Structures are given as structure tokens and as C-alpha cells.
TrEMBL record, chain A:
Family: Belongs to the ABC transporter superfamily.
GO molecular function, one term: ATP binding
Domain ABC transporter positions: 2-231
Top-rank taxon, per record: Bacteria
Keywords, alphabetical: ATP-binding, Nucleotide-binding, Transport
Pfam family, any one: ABC_tran
Species: Pseudomonas proteolytica
Keyword Coiled coil in record: no
SUPFAM superfamilies membership: P-loop containing nucleoside triphosphate hydrolases (SSF52540)
Protein name: ATP-binding cassette domain-containing protein
Length: 308, 194
């Protein structure tokens, strides 16, 4: 159980974190979402013990991080957004060093290092210096060192930044499996990537907490909840779509020709009507998808409201 | 203090993997030999010990210590990586002491690399090995004292050039103060003069 009470961090005159209070239960996967400069990374640094809070308390499994920092750090795994340093070390030596710092020795050290290497698929780059690796691989090394010692709290700062789509999917699956054994807090500017992974989301802006709700609830508050996205080669009859019962509006995708999103009014289900129209008109549709709601849309609106 | 050996080992291997380390050790040894032979007149004065060489150590350390101190926190100062180091379960004492001891070990290694001179003295004539040992320990202790000043500067400054310049200036002031107080080096010659 992680308890954060009245947490504030000031840097000079700027308030980076403003009186945050929330808790995270064991084996919960929590998403920290918000625009750049919202305070997500600062919050993770405070939770990891990298920086000290101006006021407030952080308790990680009944250990106060300000009074017992070493004890708390032993049960935390932190993947920073910035570089790890130690760029001239090879991946293998770096993971070995972190394992020793984490108190692992001998057979246990080898076992844990090998497991982290396997989980992040780092075999090919084991003997390469970290600084020479591409950003995606450096991110995977940062992830590997964070999960090396089976932490009880895993803090991930932009874990998928710099990864290709396939690697993003693999890391997403890994985080999902890790969340079964430990508490995971993920900070990201791309909430859609973690909408399936996280059960709960905190939305932040300018260091303040704007929303603390289950991901599904946030998705339901999106304009795109229950919206239908259609893509066709030929232009669609937008008027026919707009007059369907329960339709709130239509959005054309400027980047993809022939792709439109039909928005539903709150509480309305438009899928059967759209489906019937497509069947009646015999439109040749390439894709038709029902949207669960866009987290990025909700976060954008909440952030804009907070700024105004 | 369980993590102290890990930090020490890591820092020492970081030193030994840096070309700057080898270059500065080589420069130190060459300068020391040249100064001892040609300025200190080693062969004419005290061929039974290494006073002619060790008397220049306080001045040679003026350059050697700032160079190795710039490598002390180089990894942590790069790209805000200190933030990551702070998340590891290592106390500030373990981290600082581990790094200091690694740098001090490097100084010991540099002093030990004077062994060809000791062999030469023993080969050529009567060598006072106990004095040579005392001179070496004295030099090593002086390096430790200088290094502690350098560690202080490393905490205050991030930029390697600034660390080098401030440490050099501080050590120059210390060296001048030591010399003006009558101490002439780690050879113990000032005691013999009394």
C-alpha cells in the first residue's frame, strides 16, 4: 500500500507538485497522465526518493521514505525518463553492478540478471556500451534494471518512448504481467498505450491532481465514447450518418481520406443504426470500429479547463 | 556499509577504463622522473632514497589530483544521471567514501609505479628502503588530503573544467601554505634539517 499525503514540491518560486493526496493498493497498476510539465516525472522522482519533498509524507508499505530512505529504496524499482549515466559500461556489466547494489550476489545475481535480460530481449546488445545503443534499447536497459530485484513498487517514466510499435506492444504486455506481482505506477504522455494496462488513472496538470478515477470511467466521459469510426475508399454520405438517431456529430479525419468518426450523444448507442445504414446503402467499408473512448481527449479537456 | 565495496569496485573500474587515467598517470611519472633527475639532482644529492623525486609530489599533485577528480562524479553529472543514482539503496556516505577510496587507490597505484627507481637504487648502491617506504606513505597521505579537497569541489560544481580549475587553485593555495610553513615534501627532509 502506497500512501501519499499532502505532498508538495517547490523549486524556487515554482510549485512542481501541489498538495497531492492519494493512495495505491498492492498489485494495482496506476497510470499518471497529463501534458508535458504536468508534474508526472517530478512525482515519480519524489516516490523513488531521487528528490526530497518540500512538505507532505510518502509511505511505501508502511515505510516513510523521508525517515527511512534506504529501506524504502530497496523495495522500489525506478525507470527514469532521462539517461542512466554509466554510458561507457556494457549492458551486462551495468546490470551486474545494479544487481550488486541491490544486494544480489553469486547464483542469485546471475539468475536475476539473466531473467531481466530474457524479459527485455537484451541478448544481442549485452556486450555493447550503453551510450552506443539506440534510444529504444537504452529504454529497455532502464526497464531491465528497474525490475531486476523484484521490487514491490515499480515506477516507470515514459517506458515506451523511443520504442517501435512491436516493442511497445511487448513492453505493454510485460508491464501487464508485472502488475500481477507488484504495484506499478506508469507516467506517460500517451495514455492510449496504457489504457488496457492500467486499472486506474490520475490526471495531472501544473502539479495538481485533476482526476482520480478508473480508466474505464474516464473513457466513458470522452466525447468519443461509443463513437463509430468508418473508413471507406469511396466518399460516404455524411448527411445520412448525421441524421441517424443518437448521433451527436461527425468528424472527418484530415490525415486519412475516407475516414469518418460518428459521435454518439451521451447515453446513446448508435452502433446498430450505423450498421443498418451501411447494410442498406451497401457501402464498401474497409474498417468499422466501436470506440471505447479516448483517454487523450479526456486529459486534454481536463488540462485545458484547469489552465483556464 | 555493505554497498561500499560495490561502489569502490565500480569507481575503480571506471577509472581503469578511461584513457584519461592512463594519460595522467604516465604524465605524472614522466614529469616526476625528469624533475627528480634534472632539477632535483638525484644522482648528486641523496642516491640512497627518493627525496629528489618525492619533493616534487606536492606540485605534481596540483595537476594530477584535479584531473582524476573530474572523473570522480563524471557518470553522475552526465545528463542528470545523479537523479537515478539517488534512487539506489546506497547511502551518501557509502557513495562518497567508495569513490574517494577508489581515487586514493589510484594514487597508491601511481606511487607504486615508481618501483623501477627503487630497484635502480637497490641495484646501484646502498638503499634506505625504510625511508623510501615512509616517503611513499607520506606522499600517499598527501594525495589523500588533496583528494578530499577535490571531493568537496566536485560536490559544489558539475562542469569538469570548473572542477579542474577550482581544485587546481585551491590545491595551489594549500601547497603554497605548506611550503611557506617549512614543509618541503613527503620525504621528511624538513625533520632532518632541524
Amino acid at each position: 500500500m502506497i500512501e501519499i499525503t499532502n505532498l508538495t514540491k517547490k523549486t524556487g518560486q515554482t510549485i512542481a507538485i501541489d498538495n497531492l493526496t492519494f493512495s495505491v493498493t498492492s498489485r494495482e497498476c496506476l497510470g499518471l497522465f497529463g501534458h508535458e510539465g504536468a508534474g508526472k516525472s517530478t512525482l515519480l522522482k519524489l516516490l523513488s526518493g531521487a528528490i526530497k519533498a518540500t512538505s507532505g509524507t510518502i509511505k511505501i508499505h508502511d515505510t516513510n521514505i523521508s525517515t527511512h530512505p534506504i529501506r524504502a529504496k530497496k523495495i522500489i524499482g525506478y525507470q527514469p525518463e532521462a539517461a542512466l549515466g554509466h554510458g561507457n559500461m556494457t549492458v551486462k556489466n551495468f546490470l551486474g553492478f545494479i544487481a550488486e547494489v541491490r544486494g544480489l550476489h553469486g547464483l542469485q545475481k546471475r539468475k536475476m540478471v539473466d531473467r531481466a535480460i530474457t524479459r527485455l530481449e537484451l541478448w544481442r546488445v549485452l556486450d555493447s556500451p550503453i551510450a552506443t545503443l539506440p534510444a529504444g534499447h537504452q529504454r529497455k536497459v532502464a526497464l531491465a534494471q528497474a525490475i531486476l530485484h523484484d521490487p514491490r513498487l515499480l515506477l516507470l517514466d515514459e517506458p515506451t518512448a523511443g520504442l517501435d510499435p512491436l516493442q511497445k506492444q511487448k513492453v505493454g504486455t510485460l508491464i501487464q504481467s508485472l502488475a500481477e506481482d507488484m504495484t506499478v505506477i506508469v507516467a506517460s504522455r500517451n495514455p492510449e498505450e496504457f489504457s488496457c494496462t492500467c486499472q486506474r488513472a490520475l490526471v495531472m496538470a501544473e502539479g495538481r491532481l485533476l482526476a482520480d478515477a478508473p480508466v474505464s470511467e474516464l473513457q466513458r466521459s470522452s466525447h468519443y465514447y461509443q463513437a463509430i469510426t468508418l473508413a471507406a475508399d469511396a466518399p460516404l454520405d455524411l448527411l445520412a450518418l448525421a441524421v441517424l438517431p443518437g448521433v451527436a456529430g461527425i468528424e472527418e479525419d484530415r490525415h486519412t481520406a475516407g475516414s469518418v468518426t460518428v459521435l454518439a450523444m451521451p447515453g446513446q448507442i448508435i452502433y446498430p443504426h450505423v450498421n443498418a445504414l451501411v447494410a442498406n446503402r451497401r457501402w464498401k467499408i474497409n474498417t468499422l470500429s466501436l470506440e471505447p473512448g479516448r483517454l487523450s481527449d479526456v486529459i486534454h479537456h481536463l488540462s485545458q479547463e484547469a489552465l483556464n | 556499509m555493505k554497498r561500499l565495496p560495490v561502489i569502490f569496485k565500480r569507481q575503480l573500474s571506471s577509472y581503469l577504463s578511461s584513457p584519461t587515467t592512463y594519460l595522467s598517470i604516465a604524465t605524472f611519472l614522466i614529469a616526476n622522473t625528469v624533475l627528480g633527475l634534472f632539477v632535483g639532482n638525484f644522482l648528486e644529492k641523496t642516491p640512497e632514497n627518493l627525496h629528489a623525486f618525492f619533493q616534487f609530489h606536492p606540485w605534481l599533485y596540483l595537476f594530477f589530483i584535479p584531473i582524476i577528480s573530474t572523473l570522480l562524479w563524471a557518470n553522475e553529472h552526465k545528463d542528470d544521471a545523479f537523479c537515478f543514482t539517488s534512487t539506489l539503496p546506497v547511502s551518501a556516505l557509502e557513495l562518497t567514501l567508495g569513490k574517494f577510496l577508489a581515487a586514493w587507490t589510484l594514487c597508491a597505484l601511481t606511487i607504486l609505479l615508481n618501483f623501477p627507481l627503487v630497484i635502480t637504487i637497490n641495484y646501484l648502491g646502498v638503499a634506505d628502503n625504510s625511508t623510501i617506504l615512509a616517503q611513499s606513505i607520506g606522499s600517499w597521505l598527501l594525495a589523500g588530503a588533496y583528494l578530499s579537497f577535490a571531493c568537496l569541489i566536485c560536490v559544489l560544481a558539475y562542469n569538469r573544467l570548473i572542477i579542474f580549475v577550482i581544485t587546481l587553485a585551491l590545491l595551489f593555495a594549500v601547497s603554497t601554505a605548506i611550503t611557506s610553513s617549512g614543509y618541503v615534501g613527503p620525504s621528511g627532509a624538513h625533520l632532518a634539517d632541524r
